[in-house]
Amino acid sequence: MTHGSRIPELAERLKRLPPYLFAEIDKKKREARARGADLIDMGIGDPDLPTPPHVVEALKRGAENPEHHRYPSYEGMIEFRTAAAEWYRRRFGVVLDPETEVLALVGSKEGTAHMPLAFVNPGDVVLVPDPGYPVYAAGTWFAGGEVHFMPLLRQNGFMPDLGAVPGDVARRAKLMYLNYPNNPTAATATREFFARAVDFARAHGIIVCHDAMYSELRFDDYRPPSFLETPGAREVGVEFHSLSKTYSMTGWRVGFIVGNAEAVAGLGKVKTNVDSGVFQAIQEAAIAALGGPQDVAEQYRRIYQERRDVVVAGLRGLGWEVDVPRAAFFVWAPTPGGLDSRSFAARLLEEAACVVTPGVGFGPSGEGFYRIALTIEAKRLAEAMERLQRLKL
Ligand SMILES: *Cc1c(COP(=O)(O)O)cnc(C)c1O
What we know:
- The chain contains 14 helices and twelve strands.
- By secondary structure, it is an alpha/beta fold.
């Protein structure tokens, strides 16, 4: 107990979490705003575009139905699970049984965070990409598991080298998280890599947990595959999906897990003890999004692509190196002149009032890179690129 407080100390599992690496940048942002700086914030991983109107309408109608005011079914309405399965069939040619291979989630973050509680015992290992979405490691630690970070290196296309996982670690591993199109690197996976992941998972008895959050934020003619399209993937893997990024619905909290029925049932067992499902009016809105007209999603893809082009052209104009992302709404690039990512981000903020996210905040292998989120208008991104020209690095 801390002096004067009646509240016990935080549990070890919370004390063990790494320090929040963006605290420093958040503080600098507040200070800059207090000075009256006109900040251009390219750090926000949350769509700025609104949810399509027909989805909002479906929520309003659903909210008026008293049936939806009661507890929803744990696993999600069969109509919602069927809409998700139908969407998978149309988009990926993957046929799923909505009864056993689809489960509704309170956003995909909820599902990825709870998955280790279903399959990981203390001393078990979970393979986690570095850099990566922090929830994979946090969920593992909460379950008492050990995290083995798999570095994502540029020379490997930001796909992990599965052969580099030590044998004794692979033997103790229960889950492996993957995420393509990737946050933060915007990298995409090859079908060959997915096939290697299936072989690896089979050899070691591991569940592949593929976070496919950005599969619909794709550019040019590129179409990200589903992990479940890989031969054998259904025996070893699940895929996490949500409406958050595709349909600009981060605030709605609705997603789903699909794939191996035993793995889905395991997560379902945790969830019946933790939450009571997703508000059915939201599920009806999600059905409208998945099954309705896709023109708004298409329009949004074009908007993100235009923004991507502004940033890529701007950075190249400065002589800075950058790969052109084919999907997700991020640009991930090496810091110019080999600056460390925190100093680089700090200088951009102080000297140009531009916010970028230092790569090291996503894990040690993110050092030497920074992330720009394409979640602000093209005009503002162009202005940011102009400001960067005046920087003397
Ligand atoms: C945004 C994001 C999520 C969160 O998804 P929700 O469905 O809103 O919970 C999950 N994974 C990655 C990689 C993300 O970037």
